[in-house]
Amino acid sequence: MLDPEEVALNVANGRVLAEEVRSDRDVPPFTNSAMDGYAVRAADTMGASELAPVRLAVLGEIRAGLAPPTTVRPATALRIMTGAVMPEGADAVVRVEDTAERDDQVEVRAAVTAGLSVRRAGTDIRRGDVIATAGRVVTPGLIGVIASVGRRTIACIRRPRVLLLTTGDELRDAGEALGPGQITNTNRYTLRAALDDVGAEVLDVGVARDTRADLVERLRSAQNADLVVSTGGVSMGAYDLVRALIEDREAVDFWQVALRPGKPLLVGSVEGRPLIGLPGNPVSALVGVELFVRPAVLKMQGRTDYERPRLSAITEDRLVNPPHLEQYFRGIAHREGDRILVRLTGDQGSHVLRSMADANCLIVVPQGTSEIAAGEAVAIIPLGPIG
């Protein structure tokens, strides 16, 4: 877990608290009206009805943000707005829909009990109450609660700085003209978006060409990062320089994982920082982010929910798998009654990025399973809403 930093409340959404937050005040700070109406003594409304309204003298009006002009005495009322301070003498509010005002008098057409439509001071939060504990994820609702006790900043685990490096002579930026053998560097965009999505501060060092010198130069910036994520250059080809460089430095923790897509994945270190080397194929890279990078980045922020929950679904397609691998098919899941049905997005090639773009889940076929027939149960990892 990383060090804490002070964060402005208006940009703290999604961050993880690094402190216990206590209130130094009551919320609400004063007793106030829960609705527009009339502040009254409940006893004065006894027996009031549509057919037999009770008439009370209106002494004035209380607007939100202003002090009451007077107290409420027997057989009197003060017109009051939502959130306005309850005046002395009043113990209830008659909603405006149950009244009619004329000639400085209000007809009360419904009896009320003491405390009705009144929000007492401290009923939400008491001075000294713990608002949130360290480790809690900041949500919009929690931001509102913290603001209500007067805090403008809070201590949060700082965002991990992730160095992003893509590799390959053949890569060109989006919009650039493509020459023979050249392709658009989609990984630079998809991985940046995936890292942004989990709260990382991305240090994009661009594209390393297929020379060791260029790779070494770009990786010097790793000392400014908490994690290095690269894509490409980790397989067995002559120009898979990322793997060769990390092996030469004897900094490889492991290489290759028994899954599809994404088998040639490397975990090691560079410049004293952890490195996750993803494959270059677009789908393999994104699956690698989901299974390895996303949990790492969330855990560095102090999150405990770094693995997405798995759901059970019924596959509409036959799924075939090499039994020595765990395979992650891209799927489209939807609800049908109390069941979830899932089908493939189409071509499952690791180069077919559209199969990932169209997916709202990954279908998991575990190692040791060679086939799952249509109509059988499978585990899915939701990547988005399932309608």
Please describe what this structure looks like.
- The protein is about 15% helix and about 35% strand.
- The protein is α/β, with parallel strands linked by helices and about 375 residues long.
- It has four domains: about 5-25 and about 125-155, Molybdopterin biosynthesis moea protein, domain 2; about 30-120, Molybdopterin biosynthesis moea protein, domain 3 (Molybdopterin biosynthesis moeA protein, domain 3), CATH 2.170.190; about 160-300, 3-Layer(aba) Sandwich (Molybdenum Cofactor Biosythetic Enzyme, Chain A), CATH 3.40.980.10; about 310-380, Beta-clip, CATH 2.40.340.
- Helix 2 (about 185-195) packs parallel to helix 5 (about 280-300).
- It starts with a strand and ends in a 5-residue tail after the last strand.
Total strands: the figure is 28
Helix content: 10-25%
Low-confidence stretches: none
Query: CATH topology of the largest domain, which one?
Result: Molybdenum Cofactor Biosythetic Enzyme, Chain A
Q: Profile the largest sheet.
A: 6 strands, mixed
| Spatial strand sequence of the major β-sheet | 7-4-6-5-9-8
Query: Total domains, how many?
Result: 4
Shape: elongated
Name the average pLDDT.
94
Q: What is the oligomeric state here?
A: single chain
CATH architecture call of the largest domain? 3-Layer(aba) Sandwich
From the N-terminal CA to the C-terminal CA, the straight-line distance is 35 Å
Estimated share of beta-strand residues? 25-35%
User: For this structure, what is the CATH homologous superfamily of the largest domain?
Assistant: MoaB/Mog-like domain
Which CATH class of the largest domain? Alpha Beta
SS class: alpha/beta
Instruction: Determine Rg (CA atoms, Å).
Output: 31 Å
Number of helices: 6
